[in-house]
């Protein structure tokens, strides 16, 4: 059986190499779907959605060191990196990432950030997909490193 837990967060980003409007700082209300596979347990559940939600909120919304919610997500080698460092020094939530913060890259980073935490909390379930919705009509899906791209 497959089950999906969804979380939303608001963040800004920019894509410095993009030839169009996305090179400007802009924001989205991201929707992220975390799909897990497993067998029904004795309570008739694959996962406890409440526990999964706690993990997702803790990492993406609440933790001051990792939260993407209400953050500016920027490529660490962005030509404006020094400006972004100054903003962070002023106390603004700036998250530096190793590549341009596209929805496609975000799916992989979220997998790396959360796969182990989800496995530890729900050992009988396996994370099988993360989908990052940048808009209502644009989504990137990642099925883990074991799946050929």
Structural summary, described in words:
This protein is α/β, with parallel strands linked by helices and 149 residues long. The chain has one domain: 6-pyruvoyl tetrahydropterin synthase/QueD (Tetrahydropterin Synthase, Chain A). Helices cover 28% and strands 32% of the residues. It has helices at residues 49-62, 81-89, 103-121, and strands at 2-13, 26-37, 71-75, 94-97, 126-135, 138-142. The protein has a 6-stranded mixed β-sheet, with helices on both faces. Helix 1 crosses helix 3 (103-121). The chain is elongated and about 55 Å long. The chain starts with a strand and ends in a 7-residue tail after the last strand.
> Main beta sheet: strand number and arrangement?
6 strands, mixed
Strand content: 25-35%
What's the CATH architecture?
Answer: 2-Layer Sandwich
| Class of secondary structure makeup | alpha/beta
DSSP helical segment count = 3
Q: Gyration radius, to the nearest Å? A: 16 Å
The name CATH uses for the topology is Tetrahydropterin Synthase, Chain A
Strand neighbour order, sheet with most strands: 4-3-1-2-5-6
N→C terminal distance = 24 Å
CATH level-4 homologous superfamily: 6-pyruvoyl tetrahydropterin synthase/QueD
What's the number of domains? 1
Give the helices and strands, then pairings.
Elements lengths: L1 E12 L12 E12 L11 H14 L8 E5 L5 H9 L4 E4 L5 H19 L4 E10 L2 E5 L7
Helix pairs in contact: 1-3
